[in-house]
Structure formats: C-alpha cells, structure tokens
Specification:
This protein is an alpha+beta fold. The protein contains 15 helices and 16 strands. The strands form 6 sheets. The chain has a 5-stranded antiparallel sheet with strand order 8-9-10-11-12, covered by helices on one side. It has a 3-stranded antiparallel sheet with strand order 7-6-13. A hairpin with a 2-residue loop joins strand 8 and strand 9. Helix 4 crosses helix 8.
Length: about 550
C-alpha cells in the first residue's frame, strides 16, 4: 500500500544516522521548484536568447516585429510596452504605452562560447598516474575509451558550457549492466591474482573479463569455441559498461550535511511530468530492484492532453539506499550496493560555503540589459529623427504641395515661414556610454573581442606567444582557474568509473591505480615546426620519449 508522505528512514549515513529530514527536504524542494528553477531558466535564456514567433497586434504603431526574444525580459516597459514577469516570455501589456524600436545584441553567448573554446577547444591528454609497466598502458586505454564512449571532447565541452551558464554541473556515474554490480556483491573481489597485475584476467573468481549477459553486446558474447578477445576489444567492452550522465541543474537537489556544507549526504533529482491519470503508477515497484536498474529503466514520457495531470517525481539516493517518489508516494526503493554516492560535482569557479559555483552569465545580465536598453533608445531616436521634417506657417495649400526640389510657394502673409527640424545629428555622449558598457562587459567576463578573433584596430605586433599572452592574460588566467575545478571533476569521474568496474568484478584496480593525471594543451595557437624543433632538442638532452610525445599531445 502506498504512503502519501516521504519515508526517509532507510536513507542513512555510514554511521547509521538519518540524514534526510522530511520537513527540511520539502522546504528545499519548494525552493528549488519556485525560486532556483526559474533562475536557472533565466540564465539559460540570457545565454541562448531564443526567439518566439508572436503575431503583430492591431495596436502596433509600426515598430513591432513578429517575434520576441528572451533578453527583452530585462528591457524597461517604456521600450517594450509590457511589464515583465518571472519567466522571460511572460509579460503583461502596459496601457497607453506602445512598443518602441527593440534592439537586442547578445554579447553574452559569444563570450561564453569563447571561454569553452579556450578550456576544451583541444582534448587534454589523460593517463594513469599510479601505475607503471604493461598494466598502465591498459588502464590508459581504458580511461580514454570510457571518456570517448560517453562523448569524448563533446562531453567535456557540454560540461564546460553548463558550468559556465549555471555555475555548476553534476555527473552521475552509472553501470550499463546493473546486475554486474549485484553479482559482484557491491565490492571488488578479494583475489585478483597475479594476472591482474600484468593485464586483464581471463575467467574465474576476480576475472577482469566482462561476463556474458542479456545486456552484453552480441559481439562481446563468447561461444564455446570462441577465442579470447584482443586487448583493444576487451578495453572497448569495459568502456561500454560505463555511462556518464549529466544532470540538468534545474533538477538537482543535494542534501548537505548540516555541520559541513562541503559533504553531500544524499542527492535527489526532482522534475514534473504530465501523464494521463490511467497511466499513473498506483502500486510500489519491486523493493529488490537495484538503484542502477531503476536508473536505466525508461522514464514515463510526457503526454499532453486535457485529461493529463502533473506528477512530481523525486529520485533520491544515499550511501545506503535509493527511493523514488511520485507526488510524495513511494513507488520504488532498494539498497545502494555501491555504498557511496555515484555523483561527481563540479563548480565552474570555486565558491566557498556554496554548493553551486560562480556563473559566468549572471554578472553579465545587468550590463547586457543596459546595453540593449541604450541600443534600443538609439534606434528609437534614429527612427524618429532620421528624416527631416518641415513646419509651414501661414502658407496656403502647404499640405497639398509638399516640400520637394524646385517647389515654390507664393503668399501675401508677411509672417509666413517654413521651419525645418529633425534629422539624426548623433550623440557623442550616447556613443561613449555604449562603448563604456562594452568595456565593462570585457572586464567582467575577462573575454575581449580579440579573444574571439574580432580585431578592429591595430593592437601592436602580435607575432610572439608572449605578446599574445599579455593581450589575453585575463582570459588565460580564468582558463587556468577553471582547469583546476574541471580537471578534478574529470579525475573523479574516471576514478569512480574504475571503482565501479572493480566492485562489479569486471576489472580489478586498487585506489593507487585509479589516480588520474591530466596534461592540458596550450589554448593559444602554436607554430608546429617550433614545437617539433623544441621536441628534438629535448630528446637530444635525454628527456624521455614518452614525456616529449605527451607534450606534443600524442
């Protein structure tokens, strides 16, 4: 029988204490859905600046266009003619205020994209730092195969983009075959054998070769007369067992330890789905279902319709157990055989005493709004004053005979006059203010147009790497700062992947062998011939060949 309340008694820490309070969790959930989630949507909207079609109404004065952009949310109502709400595209019309000329220049997106390009424009070199000999080569191939199987450099770029926009990104490390973890008993086999030290084991207790199951790809299944797979095929089969799933920040709800905010006691994902009432789950699923199998099960698809209802889904995991709720109804639960949270948390820029790091988008929003406001004011002024206008006084039929070359008027009125006004004369203060806003965006983001390749004026002789580094010193410093946080996240993901394979009895490693070393390439363009000449000189001086190749990116 289902219970209509959170039951967190089984979610305990390693010392047996209960780590999730239902009342505090409910308050945190409401804060996520009502405050944090709209904020995350605004951050993404300012980065992407999506456009929505909107028909022009009959009240239009000739300035409206048949679409709206997300960054119009920050413009004053005197320009848009609407009061903005919490969401970017939700607004109420203002009486007796017509829409003016709206100009949106997204100065955020290209800066964020440039940051991502400098951080992960080139793939880093990843290798095992705690092993030497033949087994190190196998672990190196396995680490890179795991990353490549989950997207490779594209995965890293997605992590960097989400972190830059939201301030943090979470990754869940999962096993494609949940039953392998159950067969392994949630821990690594005790006997790895001497073969494990030299390479992958064959069969028997503690074997590193993956077991054949219904979830194993057909090309990995071995028949009675099948030969032993090659090391490359063995590594690829192991890499396919690991899945790195990026969590949408608007769904992430960590449960932090009250006396230490740096420790995550439990982790929950929360989201709404729409489904027909008949399809809603009314009975709990099998209690013995594993956390990994439940994660891999297909989630109910959203269905739209008049008879659909909104269901709040909450999935929460602790080091001891996992649970799934739908509208606070417990529908599934089970033990966490891993014994730890399968979570890797990455802060974009480290912020003490905060779960989320610093977003690169949020500090740019006020400046972006000011830039769009001034650009819109200038466009409105130019529209009104771009044509010269004439006021005729005391001249008959002046409206029937408009001003044009060769036109003459005759009048007996001595006070008749034609007054010229209008025309865009420009505003130096306005242009200077817009230039100051762009400079403030450069300082706040650390990304100048030069970093993106937009060079308008002569900025000196950029013929050496030193001169280029001085020009881009702010962006390079920010890139080095991010490499520390994202690099640690990559190391944690790969180490947790090896730990999963070890606990499932698929590939034995000890904690020292799970240490990962990352070698970052230079973000600046380099002369290949100069690098090769430098490598030759290092080789002649006795630098190991492996070190030289690593520095070259091989």
């Amino acid at each position: 029988m289902c219970s209509m309340a959170y039951q967190f008694a089984s979610l305990t820490a390693a010392d047996g204490r209960q780590i999730v309070d239902p009342a505090a969790f409910r308050d945190a959930l409401h804060r996520l859905l009502d405050l944090d989630a709209p904020r995350y949507r605004r951050l993404w909207a300012y980065y992407r600046n999506p456009m929505r079609c909107r028909p022009v109404g009959p009240e239009d004065c000739g300035s409206a266009r048949p679409y709206r952009q997300a960054q119009e949310w920050g413009l004053p109502s005197r320009i848009t003619g609407r009061h903005s709400g919490i969401e970017p595209f939700v607004a109420q019309p203002v009486e007796e205020v017509a829409r003016k000329e709206v100009v949106i220049e997204n100065d955020i997106a290209w800066r964020i994209d440039t940051m991502v390009d400098y951080l992960f424009g080139k793939p880093p070199v990843i290798e095992c730092a705690g092993e030497a000999g033949p087994r190190k080569a196998i672990i190196d191939r396995l680490l890179n195969a795991i990353l490549e199987h989950n997207g490779g450099i594209l995965l890293l770029q997605r992590l960097a983009l989400l972190g830059a926009v939201y301030g943090f990104v979470d990754v869940l490390v999962k096993l494609h075959d949940p039953r392998a973890l159950e067969r392994g008993g949630g821990r690594a086999p005790e006997a790895a054998g001497a073969a494990s030290a030299a390479g992958p084991a064959r069969h028997g207790a503690g074997a590193a070769a993956p077991e054949v199951s219904a979830d194993t790809p057909p090309d990995d299944a071995r028949g009675p007369g099948a030969s032993t797979p090659s090391p490359e095929a063995f590594v690829e089969s192991l890499a396919r067992m690991i899945r790195l799933e990026v969590v949408e920040p608007a769904r992430a709800l960590p449960v932090l330890r009250p006396d230490d905010c740096s420790v995550i006691d439990a982790y929950a994902q929360c989201w709404h789905v729409r489904r027909a009432p008949s399809s809603r789950t009314t009975a709990p699923r099998a209690i013995s279902a594993s956390w990994w199998r439940r994660l891999l099960a297909p989630r109910p698809a959203d269905t739209a319709g008049d008879d659909s209802e909104t269901v709040l889904v909450v999935e929460i995991i602790s080091p001891a157990a996992w649970q799934r709720y739908e509208n606070e109804t417990l529908v599934a639960q089970g033990p966490n055989l891993l014994g730890r949270l399968p979570l890797v948390h990455i802060q974009n820029i480290a912020m003490p005493f905060h779960y989320a790091g610093a977003s690169d988008v949020e500090p740019l929003i006020p400046l972006q709004d000011e830039l769009n406001t001034r650009l819109s004011d200038r466009a409105n002024r130019i529209t009104l004053q771009s044509f010269k206008m004439y006021l005729g006084k005391g001249i008959e039929n002046f409206t029937d005979m408009p001003v044009q070359p060769g036109r003459m008027w005759v009048t007996d009125n001595e006070k008749a006059d034609v007054i010229e006004f209008g025309g865009d004369t420009g505003s130096a203060a306005e242009s200077l203010h817009i230039a100051d806003i762009r400079e403030a965006l450069d300082k706040t983001s650390g990304v100048s147009p030069v970093a993106a390749g937009a060079i308008k004026d002569r900025i000196g002789r950029l013929t050496s790497a030193a001169a280029l580094r001085i020009t881009l010193i702010s962006l390079l410093a920010r890139t080095d700062r991010k490499r520390s946080t994202y690099g640690q996240g990559i190391r944690d993901m790969l180490a947790m992947s090896l730990d999963l394979l070890d606990r499932a009895g698929l590939f034995h490693t000890d904690p020292a062998q799970r240490r990962v070393e990352i070698h970052w390439p230079s973000p600046l363009p380099e002369n290949l011939m100069e690098k090769l000449q430098e490598a030759e000189a290092k080789t002649r001086l006795g630098v190991p060949r492996e070190v030289v190749l690593r520095e070259l990116g091989y």
